[in-house]
Design a protein that fits this description.
mainly alpha; Serine Threonine Protein Phosphatase 5, Tetratricopeptide repeat; elongated; 2 domains
C-alpha cells in the first residue's frame, strides 16, 4: 500500500511539472531552445568536456534541443523533477539504514525549489542535470572508500562543483577521519582543475559552476541554497521518525509544499519578462491574433512589447485602426534600434526581413546570436543569417552556416533543403520567399542609419508599390513621430 501511495504522489509531481511548462510557461522552453544549438559532432562534445561540469552541460544541451517541440520540453522538465525526487529518496534510504516511517513528501522539496529557481530564464538546464547526477552518486560515494581519490576529480570534471553533495553525504554517513580527509581533498582538486582547465574564468565562477547560469559573474542565491536543502532533505527523510498518522502528516506536508511553491513561482516568474517571451514564442509560430489577445488583457510598458504588438496588428491588418489602443513609446515601438542583447531585436529583425531589408536583418540576427551571454549559437538566428546570404546571392557564405545547421536535429532537414536549392539559381528565383524579398529589397547600395529608417521605408514603397508593409509602417512612423513632437 505504501508503494502505491508513493507512486501516486510521484506521478502527481510529474504531471504537475509537465502541465506547468506545457500550458503555463511554454515561452520559457522556446527561449532556452533558441539560445543554444546542439551539434552531433565530436568537436562539439570535446568543446564541452574540456571544462569542469562539461558532461552535465553537454547532456543538458542535448535535452534542451528537444524544447523545439513544446510537449517534449515539458516532458523533459517533468522527468528531471521526478528523477531528482526519486534519487533524494533513494539516498535517504541509504542514509537512514533503518527504513522510513514517513515524510516522503519532503523528498519533493528540492524538485519544487528547482522549479522556483527556473523562474529566472538565465538558469541553464545543466544545473538541475548536474544536481541529479550528484544526488544519484551519493550512495556510490558512501561505499567507495579510498576510491573517492579518483572519483572526486572525475565527478568535478563531469558535473562541476555540485560534486560536493555526494562528498558531504559520504562524510556525514561514514563519520570517519578518512571522510574528513576526502572533504579537505576537494580544495586541491578544485585548484588543480581550475588551473589546468578553466584558468581563463574568474575563480568564483569556476567554484560555483561555469555552466549553471547564463550570465557571467552572476550567482543567484538559490544556486547555493538548493544543494544545501537537498542534503538536509536527504538526512531528515532518512530519520526513523515514528508517527501515529504518517499518511496524514505526509499529505499535510505536501499541501504546505504546494502552497509554498505557488508563492515562490509568483515571486520568481516576472510577469513582464514572461509576457515578452510569450510574444516572441507566439510570433515565431505565427500566432499573431494570440499576441493581440494577450495584450488586450495585459501588456508590459516597454519598447519590446510595443514592437511585438504593433507587428502583430499589422499582420492582422489592424495597425492603422487599433494602434492607439495599445501601449506606444514613439517610433522605437515600431522598429527598435539595435540593442545587442539576445531578445530585444527579434521582432524588429522579423519585420525588417518581411519589409525587404535583408542586410539590416542580417546585422540584427548576427548581433542577437553573438549577444548570447555564454557564447552559444542559435539555430533560429543562424537560419535567418543563412537566408539573408541566400537572398543576396552569397551562396558560399550561406553554405558555411548551413553546414553547421546540418549537424543539428531540428534544423538538419531545412539546411539540406537549402543546400540543394542554391545549387540551381532558377530554383532560388522561383522560391516564393526569396523571390519576394529580392523583388522588394533595395535596388541601390547606400549608407543606412536608424534615424533615416522611415525614409528607407518610403524608398522601398516608391520602388515597388506591392510593398504594403513599408507603406503601412511609414504612415505609422510619421504618426508616432508627430505624437512625439506634441508631447
Amino acid at each position: 500500500m505504501d508503494r502505491s501511495y508513493r507512486i501516486v504522489l510521484t506521478a502527481l509531481l510529474g504531471a504537475a511539472v509537465f502541465s506547468f511548462w506545457m500550458w503555463l510557461y511554454p515561452q520559457a522552453l522556446n527561449y532556452q531552445e533558441q539560445n543554444q544549438l546542439f551539434l552531433f559532432t565530436w568537436g562539439y562534445l570535446g568543446g564541452r568536456l574540456v571544462l569542469p561540469g562539461g558532461f552535465a552541460d553537454w547532456l543538458s544541451e542535448f535535452l534542451v534541443q528537444l524544447f523545439y517541440v513544446r510537449w517534449a520540453g515539458a516532458l523533459v522538465h517533468a522527468l528531471l523533477a521526478v528523477l531528482l525526487q526519486l534519487f533524494v529518496w533513494r539516498a535517504a534510504k541509504y542514509a537512514g539504514k533503518e527504513g522510513h516511517r514517513g515524510l516522503y513528501a519532503l523528498s519533493f522539496l528540492p524538485s519544487l525549489l528547482m522549479l522556483v529557481h527556473l523562474g529566472d530564464v538565465e538558469v541553464l538546464l545543466s544545473y538541475p542535470v548536474a544536481l541529479i547526477i550528484a544526488v544519484a552518486l551519493c550512495p556510490l560515494f558512501a561505499k567507495a572508500g579510498w576510491h573517492r581519490l579518483w572519483l572526486i576529480p572525475l565527478g568535478w570534471w563531469l558535473v562541476g562543483p555540485v560534486i560536493v553533495v555526494p562528498v558531504l553525504f559520504s562524510c556525514i554517513v561514514g563519520r570517519k577521519w578518512a571522510d574528513l580527509v576526502m572533504l579537505l581533498y576537494l580544495v586541491p582538486v578544485f585548484f588543480a582543475q581550475y588551473r589546468l582547465l578553466a584558468a581563463q574564468y574568474p575563480p568564483r565562477d569556476a567554484a560555483f559552476g561555469l555552466n549553471y547560469y547564463r550570465l557571467i559573474e552572476s550567482l543567484p542565491a538559490l544556486q547555493v541554497i538548493i544543494p544545501v536543502v537537498t542534503l538536509l532533505c536527504i538526512f531528515i527523510c532518512g530519520l526513523d521518525i515514528r508517527m501515529r498518522y504518517p499518511r496524514i502528516v505526509d499529505i499535510a506536508l505536501a499541501a504546505v509544499l504546494a502552497i509554498g511553491t505557488w508563492i515562490g513561482v509568483s515571486l520568481s516568474y516576472d510577469k513582464d519578462t514572461y509576457e515578452v517571451l510569450a510574444y516572441d514564442w507566439l510570433i515565431r509560430n505565427e500566432r499573431y491574433q494570440d499576441v493581440i489577445k494577450r495584450a488586450e488583457k495585459y501588456q508590459p510598458h516597454n519598447p519590446v512589447s510595443a514592437c511585438s504588438v504593433n507587428f502583430c496588428l499589422f499582420m492582422e491588418r489592424q495597425l492603422d485602426a487599433r494602434m492607439t489602443q495599445f501601449y506606444q513609446c514613439g517610433t522605437g515601438g515600431l522598429v527598435l534600434p539595435s540593442i545587442r542583447d539576445n531578445l530585444s531585436d527579434i521582432t524588429s529583425a522579423e519585420l525588417l526581413w518581411m519589409m525587404g531589408m535583408p542586410n539590416i536583418t542580417l546585422q540584427y540576427n548576427f548581433d542577437l546570436q553573438e549577444s548570447i551571454q555564454n557564447g552559444r549559437k542559435s539555430g533560429r538566428f543562424m537560419s535567418r543569417v543563412a537566408q539573408c546570404n541566400i537572398v543576396n546571392g552569397w551562396y558560399d557564405r550561406a553554405v558555411k552556416y548551413l553546414d553547421i545547421l546540418e549537424h543539428s536535429l531540428f534544423y538538419r532537414k531545412w539546411a539540406r533543403e537549402q543546400k540543394v536549392l542554391i545549387q540551381d539559381e532558377s530554383r532560388v528565383a522561383a522560391d516564393p520567399v526569396y523571390a519576394y524579398i529580392r523583388q522588394v529589397r533595395f535596388k541601390d547600395d547606400f549608407i543606412t542609419a536608424y534615424g533615416g529608417l522611415d525614409l528607407m521605408m518610403a524608398i522601398l514603397y516608391n520602388q515597388n508599390k506591392n510593398n504594403f508593409m513599408a507603406a503601412e509602417y511609414y504612415k505609422a512612423w510619421q504618426r508616432l513621430k508627430q505624437w512625439e513632437g506634441e508631447q
